Amino acid sequence: MRYERYKQTGIDWLGEVPEHWHRSKLKHEINLVTDKARQDEEIRKYVGLENVEPFTGRFKFENGEEPKIEGEALLFEKNDVLFGKLRPYLAKCVIADFSGRCTFELLVMRPKTISNRYLFYLMLSDGFLKAIDSSTYGAKMPRASWGFIGNQLLYLPPVSEQYAIAKYLDCRVEKIDSIINAKQKQLDLLQQQRQAVISEAVTKGLDKNVPMKDSGIEWIGEVPKKWRVIKIKHLTKEIITGTTPTTQREDYFDGNINWLTPADLTEGLKIKESKRKLDIKAILDGQARLFPTDTVVIVGIGATLGKVALITKGSSFNQQLTGLICKKEKILPEFLLYWLFVKSEAIKNMASFTTLPILNNQTLREIAIVLPSISEQQKLIDYISNININTDASIKSLFEQITKLKEYRQSLIYEAVTGKIKIS
Predict the structure, then answer these.
(1) Which of 9, 200, 246, 278 is the most exposed place for a label (fewest CB within 10 A)?
(2) CATH code, 136
(3) Is the pTM of the predicted complex or chain greater than 0.85?
C-alpha cells in the first residue's frame, strides 16, 4: 500500500516521499558523541569494527575475547547508534545494548529527535549507504567524514510513524533473518565437508600408505616424505595488492572488465564474474591493473581475511585483495588455491591487528607450503574437482537463495524508510 500524496525531494536515492514528511539534516536529529574513555573506564567492553556484523545490526565477540586496543577509544551508552565510517559500504551499524568503549572508526550518535531504531534502519538502507560511500577519501582505507555524513539531507516521518515503521521492520526482518540463518547452517556444513576433502588431499596426498615426515612447522604437522616445504615467495612471480580507481570518474566503472572486491568471493573458489566492472580506460590511466587468468586472490584485510579464489579471466580488484601470480613450472595455481583455502585459519593468525586485521604482502611471501611434484599436483586437482562437483552445485544453490533473501531484506528496508510503502 502507498501513501495518498507524495512530493519530490530532489535527492537521487530518496526520490519521492510522502507529502507530510519533513526535511531535516542528520546532524540536527542526533548528538555526535566524542567523549574519550579515561583509564578508569577500561572495565567497559570494547567494540572494534570487526565486532559489528555487516547489515545485521548485531555485535559479535568470538570466544568471549576482547580485541587488542591500540590508542584512544570513544565512550558510548546503551541505545546509542554506532556507524562505521571506514568503508561504509560494509554497512556496519548497530544500536548499543550496553555501555562501552569503541574505536574512533565508529561514529557514536545519540538520537534526540529521531527514533534510534528508525535511524538504524535508515542508515542501513542501500540508498543512504551508497550516498555515504560516494564521499569516501583515502585509497587504502577509504573513510567518510562526519562533515559529509552529518549534512545528509533526510525526509522524516513524525516520530510516532517512525516507531511504527521500525516495529514493522523489526518483525519482518527477524523472520527473514531466521530463514537466512537456517540456510546458512546448511551452507556452512557443506563448506566444512568440502574443506575436509580438500585438506586431506593437499596435506596428506591420495596414497594412505606413503611414508610421512615431520614438516617442522607446527600448524602443518606431518606430510608425505617426498613432498617439499617451501615458501610462497619462491613459487610466485609477483604478489601485488589491487587498487580502487577514483570514484570521481564514473566512466572508469562503465565497462566489461571484472573488478573484484571481497564480496565477490562467495560460494565458489573460482570467480567468473564480478558485481562491478571497469572500463579499459581505468587500466590505461594507471588507476588499476589487469591481472591474468589463474591469478590466485586472497583477502588481505577485514573480517573475511584469508578468503581465497582463482580468477578465470583477466580481472582487476580493489586494495582489500592481493593477487598471487604463480610460477607454473613449480606450482599449479589451483594447488596454491586449495592450500590457502584449507589453511585459512592459520593464515588469519599470522595477520597483524590495528583497526582491522591485516595480512601484509611480506607476511604472505613467507607462508610455507608443502609441495608435491607437478604431476602429483595435477592428480590431486583432478581428484578434488571430481569429488566437489555435487557439493559445489548444492553450495551454489544455497548461496543464491541466501543472496536473494538478503536483497529482499534490503529492498524492504529501503521502501519502508523512504515511504515507498505505507505502514499502517
Answers:
(1) 246
(2) 3.90.220.20
(3) no
